[in-house]
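stuck on this one:
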Amino acid sequence: MLSKYVVFPKPNVVEVKTEELKTDGLGPKEVLIRNEASIISPGTELATLAGKEIGVQFPKRPGYGSIGKILAKGNEINDFEVGDRVFYTGYHASLQRFTHEQGHQWGHLFPVPQDLDPVEAALGCMVEISMTAPNFTELRIGDSVVVYGLGIVGMLAALMYKIKGAHVIAADPVQKRCDLALSLGIDEVISCPPDQQVEEVMKRTGGQGARYTVDAVGHSAIIRTCVKTTAPMGEILLLGSPRAPLAGDINEIMWDVHLNGKSIRGMHMFRYPVKSGRGVKMDVEWAFATAFDLIQKKRIDAQKLISHLILPGDVPATYTGLRENLNEYFCTVIDWRNEE
């Protein structure tokens, strides 16, 4: 069967190609999936495209979160049937073979409600990633949270902090993203250059800082801003994966952390085990089920959050837009349904 797929043949080059995919001889834990939609993760995939992601080698087939239906399955897969709609960490491709129950959370299939639109469902993995910080934050109703960065992860985290009852301030230099946050119900937004954010946050928190601050970008300069704007005994939550180098002396922020009893906590999604068990409060299966429920009930409005629904031929231009045009490109889903 023919499969169309996206590939980075070398740094900063994006191509869409077609190959003949062998579909017989599936392994015991292997499935053949016809993709319906896949979401682009700007942070991870742009870093990969630029050759900045750790361990990246070219040519590289990108991918992040895919929604598709099982066409065939191996004889040891008992928890899914042919025809089921699933989420999996697939490549951006129309057709793919995938091995279920690998030794990490990205190596599993997760069920998707059959009546959930697959384009909206594609947002589910970003919701699952973004809820890590809100889930591990011991909030009181009305606690102040500042989320730095209103890309898709920051926007979703801000919305889920709001769902949990926090007073949420969101900061981003892109005005259009701040406008979207307000339209979605975020309490306050700060649209100013990064070097003005500390002053503005301290002004809005009465000079005390916020109880919780979140780096949703993955930049060490923002971590420094988080420390400066966190109240004594508060928490700094690292939701983004830091990639950009930052030169300087860290003694200033470490002294602040030490003197004022602040905590810095990593919030990578790998905090969750894949499956539930005795004493496990949160797991990946639960997180995906919760994410899809939030989308179905419109508590997370996928239609408002997905800025671009594109066809495979639009992919190369879209990566350029995600890198260079932050006012217009925010959250992009590739529609594979016409590639059968």
